[in-house]
Write a structure and sequence with these properties.
Two copies of one chain form a homodimer. In chain A, about 45% of the residues lie in helices and about 5% in strands. Chain A is α/β, with parallel strands linked by helices. In chain A, the strands form two sheets. Chain A has a four-stranded parallel β-sheet, sandwiched between helices. In chain A, strands 3-4 form a two-stranded antiparallel sheet. The model of chain A has no long low-confidence stretch (mean pLDDT about 95). Chains A, B: Belongs to the peptidase S28 family.
């Protein structure tokens, strides 16, 4: 956005979502209980955007200026939904990596982890098999004596592990997030990582002689995610804190953003189902509220969302990179002449929103060019219509 | 709706709006303060409808059945807005007497009272002039000694009046509501009234010799509204309680449904402006909250609402009767081939929603027939599209 704003002589406005960053409606008490957290939801956020944009335009005497909304990931869903619900405020939306179909039963629940697995399998079948086999080895250790001490050594933990669960989460996170940020250039989105980090991970695995355990090989690969910058002497596996403030997101997944996920037998993760009742019980314990698993499809359209978009929507770009496991919940085919799906085989999580670099591949440059052209078309139509 | 449902083999569902009737989310405490009343607003009501309709369809295994929403007055606004925001749930909306343009500066603020005045003027210029002149006579009495006693006598009050203000409100209400319900047949919507009650009121005024004061003539006309059934021996002018539960509506007008109204010099009411600050201060005193005068236009579209409806909406009938002063805030011209304005010169407040009677005039029978035909078209299109 910073790269293209000057072309459009655009004012860039980053609107912080309520309950994130510094936007705490009840100050320090904002996260205290469901009483305050109840105001944290996507509809209230969309309404905030509507009010802010409308009053900002008045304040700067730009009532006639067209507004295009941009968002990636959850922000991408918000951008698409905003265009759908507030077409009088935004003339178009660029929704990057927006999994608006990740709800209810709109897509198979195993899609996400199948996609992560496909990323690794596409690079190397051995890599996929090693990771797939590592979980059973880890599981076996939890019943062995002295296993945790050995595991702590293998995983180079700063302190001795108390269970295998944290090691499991640690590996899991590394593989999932690396698939998400499998960018074509060196990047530092979640963590500093090299270009195409999934390839690098698999190269690490494929290089290690096969007499080494699958678990140790999986660990070495995962270390790339946590220690590419070589700044860590040991890993704080039990205290790995997610740095990008997911507390609010956890509340949202427990209320409206219910996205059921399972691991199929074909995935590289241990097979698992989605036990809605267990999930709901956890939410009730954490927040004292029950999730509303059908709310998003009720509010924004479910089974017929594509039809709704086709008939009532316009001027939305859904961009998705197929490396990104969230892409499977995205809109991957054009819905109409003005609801466009831009899909890149080698793209990852909202890669188009990253600043341009000299090493960007042609397909990425082309993707961004297409987006600019489409947005320009919206603007031309808007001004012609004035 | 009861008349036409059988033709469509339709299930009729009357959804009670939260905070009205028996739908009290906090029981007896629902109206206690802004803390509970905060949940009384149009967006929450629309979301209720979405959830109720979706889950009801599931419960009765009718997921594929099309839904058409009906509403009159505020309910008509809700119906139109519901179709706009939830096109995936309702295939069409019949919005009768829905003043969706009565907000912000979308129409002249004097429209409403000018329309009331026009109703009376169209029947008899003398009638209009008598009512127009009556306010000054009433005003003059407030400074005279013994005036209130005299006024109490003129107005046949059950108890002596303490001020002229209540007599003013009493007259005012009678003229405004009679214009609204100026139906072509005997009816009992707000009060029992004869056919075309504005004509009857003016007939009363025109019959009284002009030596009588304007005020006494206006009183006699207004009595028609309060005592057509001849059940009252005296009038409880200071304790006239509005029977249809407007407490919730008062909250809504103090928060989101801010509809500024003024009386022009041409109206039959004393000229008055709209002092927003005074209005806001009253709301703060009553409820401890400030109104959001631009919210409705932000949420549903303001200056460009017609454009928004044309481009993003479809399948809405806006029906309006020009006798109804609310018609001036309604959609009176077709917006597109499927957003249709049905306007009747002699119609009053959602007259089309009243049960058919043997005395219905031709234009009313025709209006209802058109509505049925349009709804049938929506259904045909829906089934063809399945």
């Amino acid at each position: 956005m910073l790269d293209i704003a000057p072309k459009f002589k655009a004012l860039l406005v980053f609107i912080e979502h309520r309950f994130y960053g510094k936007s705490m409606p009840f100050g320090k008490d904002s996260y205290q209980s469901a009483k305050t957290l109840g105001y944290l939801n996507s509809q209230q956020a969309l309404a905030d955007f509507a009010v802010l944009i409308t009053s900002l335009k008045q304040n700067v005497s730009s009532e006639a200026s067209p507004v295009v909304v941009f968002g990636g990931s959850y922000g991408g869903m918000l951008a698409a939904w905003f265009r759908l619900k507030y077409p009088h405020i935004a003339i178009g939306a660029l929704a990057s990596s927006a999994p608006i179909l990740q709800f209810d039963k709109l897509i198979p629940w195993s899609s996400f982890y199948d996609a992560v697995s496909q990323d690794f399998k596409d690079v190397s079948l051995n890599c996929y098999q090693v990771i797939k086999g590592s979980w059973a080895e880890l599981e076996a250790m939890s019943t062995q004596k002295q296993a945790l001490a050995e595991l702590s050594k293998t995983f180079r933990t700063c302190k001795s592990l108390h269970s295998t669960a944290s090691a499991r989460d640690w590996l899991w996170t590394a593989f999932v997030y690396t698939a998400m940020v499998n960018y074509p250039t060196k990047a530092d989105f979640m963590k500093p990582l090299p270009a195409y980090p999934v390839q690098k991970m698999c190269k690490i695995i494929d290089k290690i002689p096969s007499r080494a355990t699958k678990l140790s090989r999986a660990f070495t690969a995962a270390s790339l995610y946590y220690n590419y910058s070589r700044s860590e002497n040991c890993f704080k596996i039990e205290h790995e804190v997610d740095g990008h403030g997911l507390h609010g997101w956890d509340w949202q997944t427990c209320t409206e953003m219910v996205m059921p996920m399972t691991c199929s037998k074909e995935s590289m993760f241990p097979p698992s189902g989605f036990d809605y009742e267990e999930f709901a019980e956890q939410c009730r314990m954490k927040y004292g509220v029950s999730p509303r698993p059908h709310w998003i499809t009720t509010e924004f359209g479910g089974e017929r969302i594509q039809k709704v978009l086709k008939r009532f929507g316009s001027n939305i770009i859904f961009s998705n990179g197929m490396q990104d496991p969230w892409s499977r919940g995205g809109v991957l085919k054009n819905i109409s002449s003005s609801i466009i799906a831009l899909v890149t085989e080698k793209g990852a999580h909202h890669v188009d929103f990253r600043s341009a670099t000299k090493k960007d591949p042609k397909w990425l440059i082309q993707l961004r060019k297409q987006e600019v052209e489409i947005i320009q078309k919206w603007l031309n139509e808007y001004y012609a219509d004035l």
